[in-house]
Amino acid sequence: MPNQTTYRKELERLFKENYNRLYFFAFNIIHDAENAKDIVSDAFQEVWENHRDKVPDNQLIVPFLHVCVRNSCLDYLRRQHVSQRYEEYVLHNLSEMDDHDLSEREERMAKVLKSIEALPLQTRNVFKRCFLDGKKYKEVSDEMNISVNTIKTHIIKALKSLRGEFSKED
Amino acid sequence: MKLNPDREDKLGKLDDKHEDDLEFALQALNHLEIASSEKFQQWVDESDSHQALYAECLFYREAGLAAEGAGLPDVEQEWMKFDPSPEQTPTSRKRSLPTWVWTAAAAIFAVALLFPWLLHRNEEMRLAKLMEKHVVLQTENGEPIVVDQANKGQIESLGAQTHQSGRYGVLNMRQSASKVKLMSASTSNTYTLNIPKGKAYQLLLEDGTEVYMNTGSKIIFPNHFKSDSRVVEIEGEAYFKVTKDPNRPFIVKTASFSTKVLGTEFNIRAYPQGESNVTLVTGKVLVTSGENEANQVTLSPGQNATCAGGQLLVKDVDVENYIAWKDGYFFFEEASLEDIMNEISRWYNVRVEYGNENLRKLKFKFWANRESSFQDAVVLLNQVGKVDVRMVSPGQALVMPAK
Known about the structure:
- The complex is a heterodimer.
- By secondary structure, chain A is mainly alpha-helical.
- Chain A is built from eight helices and no strands.
- In chain A, 76% of the residues lie in helices and 0% in strands.
- Chain B is of the alpha+beta class.
- Chain B has a 17-stranded mixed sheet that branches. In chain B, strands 19-22-21 form a three-stranded mixed sheet.
- In chain B, 31% of the residues are buried.
- Chains A and B meet through α1, α2, α3, α4 and α5 of A and α2, α4, α5, α6 and β21 of B.
């Protein structure tokens, strides 16, 4: 009988270390938060069912989790009757799983996070509505009572600072 | 300060021209119906910069959600929901199932109540299970017979015998017609022999023709051939040594073509997935594709016909590539990883997943003994240095790029 406590701890570590990345991997494909969460939990479920006594090495299991999540996302798209073309697109553009440049990605993410924190309040407001809430420029303009052109300026400004560029006007 | 000069090049400068593109990308970002629309897919295909812009936006959204905090799933809470504490079984997870599962379950239950004939499905499933592990002979209306287990009574009742010859188990039907004639009035029966994954088997037909059946294949044949022709049907792969009989041509049918011979040796590969091939070793064969008599080719020894979209393509080949399986080898002189993995995984019954799609097309030269384990084959593949095939569990492998 394997040591259940150790096993559970290992599984917990695996879960917590990888949850967010897998979540966004799914979310970026299906754009649905609740289903993305279900898909990720199901992938861990698969690990648990296939490896009851020992959590396999990260090097082996992390790419496997990715594949599980990718396959479930494709199943989800099929259930939603999403076009074949989008499936192809996902396979070729959104499902790269080479685990080489992970730390580079994390570094970049940290920098972008910092840049977002540093955005002027109004720009950040516009960024949030357009990037996270998926609102149209027109809707945001109505809500915030500013012109569509101003929205555009804010968005370009946000993008430039997230890219680490600084425009001449600043 | 630039984070990534390459990305910068692809994206181009941000100016007014890009504002529409940008709004479009942002819309797709949060609406699956837009991201999956024809219009968006065309837009992405239009230029690398569009694809790069969209990827960039996905990345910023992720960062944005992290910055807001509120948009992120609560990992701690998700773990609590998932946590398989020791007293729980995997099926009693705390997370409730999505509604559609319950709806589906209710529907299935209702259907089961209404139609007792669904119980027949049980029988079918039992047979399917049997055929996953064993070489099974199905008769037209009788009980399926397991051939690769001591089962002499049932096999002999058909006038057949089994024996071992080298690496092959053999089902010998040579005497079946005459013996059955003595026992019953009906003389012509049709049989189906199913070979499961991971096995190969040999069949000796009534006329003395030898058929080597490769893994995951089936053949439909009569116990007694007609007086003017000998017809069998296959799905999968088989190597034929046909007994010469100028008066009765031997015809092998597959889903996409038929092969007509008088007496010769040849290999046919016609699995449901992948291309179909006829490879001639000695003698002469006539291959006809579909219904169209005009679409015919005659092969000489050393030639292979491929059937693609109803068209037959003939080329000279190294026959050994196509028939090495019969002698217990995998042999690929120059093949895509996908073709190689398809064949290997069929034999070992392993599910193969690819970390990224480009890996499928990598070309390999590959040789291995089929009697070794899947792990041994994987070690050989990895030694080439192009890929890193990993075993996730006994039935699952994952192909990743080599480090």
